[in-house]
Every structure is written in structure tokens, then in C-alpha cells.
Amino acid sequence: MINVEIERSIEAILMVVDEPVSELTLAQVLEKTVEEVEMALARLETSYEDRGFCLRKVNGGWRFYSNPEFSSAVEKFVLDGQQSRLTQAALETLSVIAYRQPVSRARVSAIRGVNVEAVMKTLITRGLVEESGLEHETGAILYKTTSYFLERLGLNSLEDLPALAPYLPDLDGLDEILDSLTD
After folding, report:
1. Which residue of 4, 57, 110, 149 lies most exposed, with the fewest beta carbons within 10 A?
2. What CATH number has the domain spanning 88-182?
3. Which Gene3D superfamilies match (predicted)?
């Protein structure tokens, strides 16, 4: 199979996948080396730079995505007047889970300061959060984000989440605020 055939075969496979496909899986299916597949993916990735779609590695695998430059057109088409965005409460809960996982529902509620029962059901239903075991001390169910969460955010792994420190107040500033409240 020559390079063009490998690339065309990869394109055909990626057109029908529901989730990202790894280089190893592609190599096994095409009976090629991982290196040959990686080279073909690199060529394909650059060949789509000026298109309405792109080829990206996300969550440990490759998949076609719409070009971010055209997100407003895609959003308008997909939503078609529907409101499918997460609420502020759902986004906050999802953030706590993403950064503290695995975490219990009670811990998320304690961090947010509100009951998160309904929000958790929404996140589970949408496939963004899943159960990941039990907490040894309390027996509470622990939750984590799913691979679908990584895919929707365009992340390769949880390590790609942005750091929180730049968004937190510095300790000196926090001390000043607390001092001003006691005066």
C-alpha cells in the first residue's frame, strides 16, 4: 500500500468513527507500522489547514473536527434555536469534578456550598461524568470525568486542563480582605 492509499484509508476510517482512534489501532487495521501511520496522519493534518474541517489528536486518538474558525456557523446549524449549553451550576460542578477527581458527590456539594444532586444527574446523562469507584472511608460513590469530556473540550488528557493558580487570589490579597472584614 503506497502512502496515498494509507492516507485515503485513514480518511475513510476516520469518517465513520464515533470517538478518536489511536495510531496503533489504525496501524493494526491497515496492517502497517505505527511509524507509517504517524507519517500519514502528519501529512493529512497539514493538508487540511485551509479547510472547513481539521484532523486533530484528542484523548489519545485522531478524529476529524470542524475548523474552530467556523464555530459560529456550526453552532447555529447544530443548535438551530435550541439551548443545549450547560448551566452555570453544571459548569461549576463539572469544574470541581475535573480538578478534584475522583471525588464524591458530598465533597462536590461541600466545595460548591449547594446541593448538586440534580446537576450531577445532568452531567451523567450527558456523558460528561461517570462513577469511578467507592471512597474507602465512607463508601460514597466517586465520580470522574469521561473520555467524552476530554473530547468535547479538545484535550488530550487531564494534564492539559489549564492551571487554576492564576485565577485564585494571592494569599496576601486574601489576608487584606479578611482584615478589612474584621475592622
Report:
1. 4
2. 1.10.10.10
3. Winged helix-like DNA-binding domain superfamily/Winged helix DNA-binding domain
How much is the pTM? 0.53
3-state secondary structure of 73: helix
Please give the full DSSP string across 10-32, using - where no structure is assigned. Answer: HHHHHTT-SS-B-HHHHHHHHT-
How far is the C-alpha of 3 from the C-alpha of 35, rounded, in Å? 12
In angstroms, the CA 30 to CA 54 distance is: 22
**Identical topology for domains 3-70 and 88-182:** yes
Contact 41, 24 (CB under 8 A): no
According to DSSP, the β-strands at 129-134 and 141-145 are: antiparallel
Strand 141-145's sheet: what is its strand order? 103-104, 141-145, 129-134
Q: Which CATH number fits domain 3-70: 1.10.3720.10, 1.10.10.10, 2.60.120.280, 3.90.600.10?
A: 1.10.10.10
Q: Tell me, what's the pLDDT at 9? A: 95
Q: Map out the domains of the chain as residue ranges.
A: 3-70, 88-182
